């Protein structure tokens, strides 16, 4: 069996995107996974055939540790002789693609899932953009998780036109309809635990609590909505990576009894069940998987009109889009859906149909499997031809 290696920064990426893929691919390849598993636990549902290796990598820049991580990967790749190395997230992509190129790994595959530099300025923006270009240069195969992100990468000159693949209509892993299914019992239980009445409208945000995700805009907007509509609640679930919890609470302080900040969650299903509308006012997004997950459970989405989310949300059909950073427009969208249960239901049903039809996890996992076989078999043929010549 051919040997495939994954490199990611955080187990959150594994738990959120890779579990189904790894299980299917393990039927056909020897799979190794390099990840920093001390920060968060890797899901217990990971396929036991996957060889899990901890290595010291951090999301934030740390020159000395990053150099050590690069050297470690280079030595591992030389020793293990992988047929394909596959990376996700910017830091893991830079280290894995560079180490894979230096070690002579035949196929080096990276997935772009959103560009960090989009919201940066000056030197930092230039440096991060250059990092993405270096990833593209070192990779033999490149994928984006949305069509609009592919177009953005090409337009910005990060990748030359024609090099970027998109699986199906987008997303990394699709959505599992068995896992993400509406559960009325869970809805009642979760609302009871949080002290939320059943006849209220609950807005849900699930993701990293950062400025880039637009959570401060969300807090401002909810404060206005809560003042106008007494039956509205906001649930925020995710790790606070920038220490924003106190600022959010301060902004919503007049209505603190209607705000619930949960922290990081391993399984978001029950929080989707408790909600009525997903809100994702992000400033940058590769695709927005939470949109698909919540859609499969019948929730419409409110999202900012940026690349990535324009693929995940069909404006006026499965949710609504607003100009990024426009707090008043976000407020209007939230108020409109809070006051129109019929519209919420129509958008939610359409979102569910689209998620199950176009973004099935089985379809996307099989597309990955086919892609891997084509890439590895193509690489093997090239090697044989080179040896004969």
Structure description:
The chain is of the alpha/beta class and 389 residues long. It folds into two domains: 3-174 and 361-388, 3-Layer(aba) Sandwich (Rossmann fold); 184-358, Rossmann fold, CATH 3.40.50.2000. The chain is 47% helix and 16% strand. It contains 14 helices and 13 strands. The model is unreliable at 383-389 (pLDDT under 50).
Computed over alpha carbons, the radius of gyration is 21 Å
CATH class of the largest domain: Alpha Beta
Might you state the CATH topology name of the largest domain? Rossmann fold
Average residue pLDDT: 91
The helix-strand sequence is EHEEHEHEHEHEHEHEHEHEHEHEHHH
What percent of residues adopt helix (DSSP H or I)? 40-55%
Strand order of the largest sheet: 3-2-1-4-5-6-7
| CATH-level-4 superfamily name of the largest domain | Glycogen Phosphorylase B
Secondary structure class reads alpha/beta
Strand content: 15-25%
Kindly state the number of beta strands: 13
**Total helical elements:** 14
Flag low-confidence runs: 383-389
CATH architecture of the largest domain: 3-Layer(aba) Sandwich
The domain count comes to 2
**Biggest pleated sheet:** 7 strands, parallel
- The rounded distance between the terminal residues' Cα atoms is 26 Å
Rough outline: globular
Task: Give the topology, please.
Layout: E1 3-7, H1 11-25, E2 30-35, E3 51-54, H2 63-80, E4 84-88, H3 90-103, E5 107-112, H4 122-138, E6 141-144, H5 147-155, E7 164-165, H6 184-194, E8 201-206, H7 215-228, E9 232-237, H8 245-251, E10 259-263, H9 269-274, E11 277-280, H10 289-296, E12 301-304, H11 309-312, E13 319-322, H12 327-339, H13 341-358, H14 361-388
Parallel strand pairs: 1-2, 1-4, 2-3, 4-5, 5-6, 6-7, 8-9, 8-11, 9-10, 11-12, 12-13
């Amino acid at each position: 069996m051919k040997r495939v290696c994954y490199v990611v920064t955080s187990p959150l990426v594994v738990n959120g995107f890779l579990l189904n893929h790894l299980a299917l691919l393990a039927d056909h390849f020897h799979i190794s996974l390099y990840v920093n598993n001390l920060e968060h636990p890797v899901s217990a549902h990971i396929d036991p055939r996957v060889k899990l290796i901890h290595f010291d990598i951090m999301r934030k820049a740390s020159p000395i540790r990053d150099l050590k991580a690069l050297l470690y990967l280079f030595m591992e790749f030389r020793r293990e002789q992988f047929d394909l190395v596959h990376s996700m997230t910017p830091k893991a992509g830079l280290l894995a693609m560079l180490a894979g190129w230096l070690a002579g790994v035949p196929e080096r595959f990276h997935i772009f899932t959103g560009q960090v530099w989009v919201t940066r300025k000056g030197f930092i923006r230039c440096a991060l953009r250059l990092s993405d270009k270096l990833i593209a240069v070192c990779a033999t195969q490149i994928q984006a998780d949305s069509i609009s992100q592919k177009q953005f990468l090409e337009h910005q000159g990060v990748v030359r036109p024609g090099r970027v693949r998109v699986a199906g209509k987008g997303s990394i892993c699709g959505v599992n309809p068995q896992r993400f299914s509406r559960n009325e019992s869970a809805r009642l239980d979760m609302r009871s635990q949080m002290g939320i009445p059943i006849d209220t409208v609950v807005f849900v945000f699930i993701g990293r609590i950062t400025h880039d995700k637009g959570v401060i805009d969300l807090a401002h907007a909810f404060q206005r909505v809560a003042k106008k509509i007494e039956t509205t609640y906001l649930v925020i679930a995710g790790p606070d990576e920038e220490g924003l919890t106190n600022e959010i609470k301060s902004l919503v302080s007049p209505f603190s009894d209607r705000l619930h900040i949960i922290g990081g969650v391993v399984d978001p299903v029950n929080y989707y069940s408790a909600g009525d509308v997903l809100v994702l006012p992000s400033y940058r997004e590769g695709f927005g998987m939470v949109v698909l997950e919540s859609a499969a459970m019948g929730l419409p989405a409110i999202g900012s009109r940026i690349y990535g989310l324009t693929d995940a949300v069909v404006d006026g059909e499965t949710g609504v889009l607003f100009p990024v950073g426009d707090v008043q427009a976000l407020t209007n969208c939230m108020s409109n859906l809070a006051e129109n249960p019929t519209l919420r239901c129509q958008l939610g049903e359409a979102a569910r149909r689209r998620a199950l039809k176009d973004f099935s996890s089985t379809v996307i996992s099989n597309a990955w499997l086919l892609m891997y076989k084509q890439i590895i078999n193509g690489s093997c043929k090239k090697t044989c031809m080179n040896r004969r010549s």
